[in-house]
Amino acid sequence: MKKWLGAAGVCVYDRKVLMVLQGTPEEPKRWSVPSGGLEAGETFEECCVREIKEETGLNVEIRQSIWKKERPYGEIIYFAVKVVGGEETINDPDKLIYRIDWKSPDELTNLALSYPEDKTFLIEYIQNYKHDDLSIKNDRELIGEHLNNDIDEK
Question: Do residues 39 and 120 lie in contact, with contact meaning Cβ atoms separated by under 8 Å?
Fold first, then answer.
């Protein structure tokens, strides 16, 4: 039996993580970081970038791998990513994404997640997230231009 392989992108800005509300039409909708399965000939990094573009409309670059989750059915690699362009919009060809939002650790505590085992990892990652000065400047410029205008700039 062939193992499922996938990638996920973890994008943090202003102590919030980029999330999507997802699910099939007949199931309850739950939150997740943008993620999905590898397509033929695709690397984990390429899959991560593609899935974020499809699910959120944002262009990202990979910073580094931050977690590898292995299960009996397969594995998924989580990458720290940085927004480099695009506009926040749902382009999901599978029609499984219903909403895009930025969630704080406090909000994550009470959210129904597609993968509940991600909750502790995501909360700790956000709380320990560090930018270098250049990244903060670039992220703020992109957030201001391409994302929610109501995000607090500190």
Answer: no
Tell me whether strands 74-86 and 4-10 are parallel, antiparallel or unpaired.
parallel
What DSSP element (H or E) covers 153? none
DSSP-derived secondary structure letter, 14: T
| Helix, strand or coil, per DSSP, at residue 137 | helix
pLDDT tens-digit series, residues 59-107 = 999 999 999 999 899 999 999 999 999 999 999 899 999 999 999 999 9
pLDDT tens digits along 16-61: 999 999 999 999 999 999 999 999 999 999 999 999 999 999 999 9
Q: Cβ distance 55 to 24 under 8 Å? A: no
- Which of helix, strand or coil describes residue 127? helix
pTM over 0.85: no
- Alpha-carbon span 7 to 90, nearest angstrom: 18
- Nearest to residue 86, comparing CAs of 76, 97, 67, 100? 100
Set out the domains of the chain in order of their start, with CATH numbers: 4-146 (3.90.79.10)
